[in-house]
Amino acid sequence: MAVPARTCGASRPGPAQTACPWPGCGPSPGARRPASGPRPLWLLLSPLLLLPLLAAPGASAYSFPQHTMQHWARRLEQEVDGVMRIFGGVQQLREIYKDNRNLFEVQENEPQKLVEKVAGDIESLLDRKVQALKRLADAAENFQKAHRWQDNIKEEDIVYYDAKADAELDDPESEDVERGFKASTLRLDFIEDPNFKNKVNYSYTAVQIPTDIYKGSTVILNELNWTEALENVFMENRRQDPTLLWQVFGSATGVTRYYPATPWRAPKKIDLYDVRRRPWYIQGASSPKDMVIIVDVSGSVSGLTLKLMKTSVCEMLDTLSDDDYVNVASFNEKAQPVSCFTHLVQANVRNKKVFKEAVQGMVAKGTTGYKAGFEYAFDQLQNSNITRANCNKMIMMFTDGGEDRVQDVFEKYNWPNRTVRVFTFSVGQHNYDVTPLQWMACANKGYYFEIPSIGAIRINTQEYLDVLGRPMVLAGKEAKQVQWTNVYEDALGLGLVVTGTLPVFNLTQDGPGEKKNQLILGVMGIDVALNDIKRLTPNYTLGANGYVFAIDLNGYVLLHPNLKPQTTNFREPVTLDFLDAELEDENKEEIRRSMIDGNKGHKQIRTLVKSLDERYIDEVTRNYTWVPIRSTNYSLGLVLPPYSTFYLQANLSDQILQVKLPISKLKDFEFLLPSSFESEGHVFIAPREYCKDLNASDNNTEFLKNFIELMEKVTPDSKQCNNFLLHNLILDTGITQQLVERVWRDQDLNTYSLLAVFAATDGGITRVFPNKAAEDWTENPEPFNASFYRRSLDNHGYVFKPPHQDALLRPLELENDTVGILVSTAVELSLGRRTLRPAVVGVKLDLEAWAEKFKVLASNRTHQDQPQQQCGPNSHCEMDCEVNNEDLLCVLIDDGGFLVLSNQNHQWDQVGRFFSEVDANLMLALYNNSFYTRKESYDYQAACAPQPPGNLGAAPRGVFVPTVADFLNLAWWTSAAAWSLFQQLLYGLIYHSWFQADPAEAEGSPETRESSCVMKQTQYYFGSVNASYNAIIDCGNCSRLFHAQRLTNTNLLFVVAEKPLCSQCEAGRLLQKETHCPADGPEQCELVQRPRYRRGPHICFDYNATEDTSDCGRGASFPPSLGVLVSLQLLLLLGLPPRPQPQVLVHASRRL
């Protein structure tokens, strides 16, 4: 029965299996039957259909009875256990540790003390940044208050470093090439600073001004004049705290002044960076928002006006952060949401993407009905049954104009208190009276804007923030609250950062006795790199599976080992929920809620964890401990497995290191040189920060050489070295070297078909014996980042790990005996009442040799020299996996569902593949009979290859971006000129790239760079059946008997099955490989109906009785003159080539 295709988030049904009706089959005594749901009628009748088969004297059930399968399983178990006991050296390594007990101490991890100490250290780090922020904000307010406005100020009067000047000078099309540097622009020298990952100059600040702002305007020049005084404050801050990174002042005018100076990271296309649209600025400039956007889609709104509206709404959405809530609706005679969201939803990245896609589908028709639109918006804001920001409430209306003032609606919903602000936007070129739109905004404490063309979109969709900032400014010191942002990508290459923000207020008055100024000057920000916070957390004392994490009030992680975004969207914060960073369950939901509420807590839970290679799931025990980080919105958690309660700390004094240690041949670290590997085995050392001056390298051999060279210059007790890491490395090197001497060196690996034996330790040593086996060793040299190491610690017994294979890759190459299967187990060490797991040992099996051995062990021969016994499927004797490999399929599958061994020679090169790719029918039967269960999750940090562009302009759906060829076309030219005297052309040239999919990416083109996407992951793990079990795969006239049994003390499932006799039963294939989810994961429309718990900021500034709302509307900013537009028309008609490249457009616009 074919299985229908499944969409992301849906479950895949499969054909059910019937328990075997023959004598002797079914579950063994004491085995638990798998749970099953209602079965179809035809399936309930299937035993009757099999009666003719039961009557057959040569039924295949008698050919491999259950007791024989169990006997084969025991032989396999004994063989694996014997090899591991002889070669693994688990017991011998325990003895070596105990023999050298005087060389180490056992330390205890006390979770509560640890997490409180780390929280205190992080609090101290952030508090130093807060003090620097306050000094900067106070100084900025005083500088601006003392500044005297100059109406006649000129560019040559102001000298500053223009951060974009170097890039513009390198640009052959730039006007700065023609005239050189402006007299007012400084030329600076820079030095490389690894802390900033950049070249910097500590003697100056740098200034970045958005491309769409004229640098020579009076407003900008005055801004540059008074902010120059901040330079000395920046420097003094750095003197007091040398660890400070970027210090930034983002002005409400768009000017960014930052310290230390560094050249701007200029993108390959137009630079649209505007500090006022950065997440940290938006968060610092206003309190959280509940926003309803209503868009007029009546018949008069058509063509370019509708496209301007769509773009405007998308730009408006980009001014919202995760603390805000929003909904978007369109209206004509009636109002309806543009998306599936029927109420306000959190303005997170995924929800905003849903809105942006839905907005592109709006179609103009019908007549204008402002009343319908506003009533819908007010109803949305009055809905108290949903989670929302509960602070600033506002309605943003985009329209081309109309006569109705809908005063009755405002009287009903908003007056007299006017708790909802109304912002109106007149879009496009039209002749409608805009007085009603201005009146709506002024009567409801809002603002009126005009968007006649593309160029007015960005400025006029962000200036509403100035209005929202009024109550904050009027609140004075009460509003001077430092806020810490979500994680986001630094614009200057620092990587992932969080930013502390503090608003800067205008303290001036219009005159003696006049009202206080209510404008926000800007936002002060100081960056803290995530890596600096991570350095405050314990790394290697927690063991391979212990870690520290931190979350904010939204439940997003600040720290987590799984926070690894493969790509970052420059314009959006990096938001990964704690429940998406780990595998979600009820216990973790409770922990997350408690942390968001700022509580302390501790809880031991059983939970599922995903392996490092994302192929396996383990059910484990974890201890969670958490505390709030005072003076912040963050909460810190510590996760420890029970076996990591204790850890080893080498007790090696410098005196001991100067002589030959009794446990090894240590002398000047020569034991780590390749010359010693032939007899001692190859040693990989984890690339850790053992010493400050140690040069890192991705090549482990090179790293070893660097390490040895440094050790010749310093002693292990040097202050520049981490004694804990270095001494533990030395200890474990000697410990594993003794394992070579006591166990490995005297054994013949070929006798048991082993390619290698190995040991890995918490101290960072991985020793592989013999030396030649290291050539094919592909595991991570850092044990804490090796999947086999971490899984072995979490599992009892022997963990098999076949070579990783992808169905799309070529099969394994079995030549030269290089393909092996890792078998590993943890070394559990008991010292008194303290138990820990400091190491993992294992062997590497020769695949081909063990495939042959597997067939012998699953045969009726008592030893390898006994002749084979022929037994056909219709005879009364028992078949086996060796002789009857044409009739029987015998396989070992691991707990993730990956093939480990098979009696079919043609399947040997498929070892490591998900078994559904080898035998889909049988894997589905194992899943349906509860041998396996699965866990589906979503990777929100994945990177996907770019989709083939359907339009070279990379414009969103429905947005037309005219090319120069279009402009030169007479028909288009006539209609465009009639529309607007080239104003649209002017702004269209300057902001050509606004319509592109991702205008702020600095590197690569949309056709070549990877983009962030959501991948669906499915991992399989052992289900509820843990005993011997038989079942029949029933498929019409064809049936297939199989037997499955778990191998004790391993992660293997032994399966014997009849080979399929016909192909008419085509089961749906279970999928394990990551798949791309076009819908960005689980259906967003369903998720918003059950939003995760969160808390917004503790304070809200949305009202002040002294607010002056008289300034409530104006037209478009920076209207171009008629002469400029006509000149531009002539320039384009006479000067532009017929088929220019997009870059020419950009450069031409810069000259303008």
TrEMBL record:
Its membrane topology: Single-pass type I membrane protein
Annotated region described as Disordered, given as residue ranges: 1-21
Molecular function terms, GO-annotated: metal ion binding; voltage-gated calcium channel activity
Pfam families (alphabetical): VGCC_alpha2, VWA, VWA_N
UniProt record, GO biological process: muscle cell development; neuromuscular junction development; organ growth; positive regulation of organ growth; regulation of multicellular organism growth; regulation of neurotransmitter receptor localization to postsynaptic specialization membrane; rhythmic synaptic transmission
Record CDD domains: vWA_VGCC_like
Keyword line: Calcium, Calcium channel, Calcium transport, Disulfide bond, Glycoprotein, Ion channel, Ion transport, Membrane, Metal-binding, Signal, Transmembrane, Transmembrane helix, Transport, Voltage-gated channel
GO CC aspect terms: GABA-ergic synapse; presynaptic active zone membrane; voltage-gated calcium channel complex
PANTHER family: VOLTAGE-DEPENDENT CALCIUM CHANNEL SUBUNIT ALPHA-2/DELTA-RELATED, VOLTAGE-DEPENDENT CALCIUM CHANNEL SUBUNIT ALPHA-2_DELTA-2
Protein family: Belongs to the calcium channel subunit alpha-2/delta family.
Name of the protein in its database record: Calcium voltage-gated channel auxiliary subunit alpha2delta 2
